């Protein structure tokens, strides 16, 4: 959101796309009519879950998002392009499918990683962590040790990795596979 505002500050039109669920929370927290005054356009697209569905069910949410949102994003882009040509899509690599939609539509794209550098560093060191016996091929720590990826990044506990979800192996699998297989593709 901050990046979007910085872009708008430079006189560039920007549209911030979110899920309907998060969009409703975001707009509810804003001052009355501030959305109307903002040069940043806020829009939403469905995430594939029904209102009665649990938004904290990460496996179900992830599956639905990947099935439903790319098509809705494509439709939104086509609608916006009727009046104002989109020149670039900027997305967090956790929604890399948005970058894929941009590529298929011939739109420039950029991945922006808003999480800390330590989190990002783990994405590029998974193979090394497996080879050194720190984690298994599912991302589960073999022992409780400190991990130093470099002298410039503080040590991390092997039990608190970006994909760690103790007691929730299904969610951990989804997040670990994203880090291990998809992240490097988008960055």
UniProtKB/TrEMBL annotation:
Superkingdom: Eukaryota
Gene3D superfamilies: Glycogen Phosphorylase B
GO MF term set: quercetin 3-O-glucosyltransferase activity; quercetin 7-O-glucosyltransferase activity
Family: Belongs to the UDP-glycosyltransferase family.
Name of protein: Uncharacterized protein
Source organism (scientific name): Quercus rubra (Northern red oak)
């Amino acid at each position: 959101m901050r990046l979007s505002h910085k872009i708008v500050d430079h006189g560039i039109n920007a549209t911030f796309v979110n899920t309907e669920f998060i969009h409703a929370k975001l707009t509810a927290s804003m001052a009355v009519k501030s959305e109307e005054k903002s040069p940043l356009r806020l829009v939403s697209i469905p995430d594939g879950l029904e209102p009665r569905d649990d938004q904290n069910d990460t496996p179900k949410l992830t599956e639905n998002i990947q099935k439903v949102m790319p098509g809705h994003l494509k439709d939104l882009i086509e609608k916006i392009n009727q009046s104002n040509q989109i020149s670039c899509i900027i997305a967090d690599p956790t929604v890399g499918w948005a970058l894929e939609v941009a590529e298929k539509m011939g739109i420039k794209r950029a991945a922006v990683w808003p999480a800390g550098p330590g989190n990002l560093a783990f994405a590029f060191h998974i193979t090394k962590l497996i080879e050194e016996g720190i984690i298994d091929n599912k991302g589960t720590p073999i022992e409780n040790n400190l991990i130093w990826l470099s002298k410039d990044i503080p040590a991390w506990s092997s039990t608190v990795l970006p994909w760690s979800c103790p007691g929730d192996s299904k969610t951990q699998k989804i997040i670990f596979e994203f880090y291990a297989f998809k992240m490097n593709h988008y960055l």
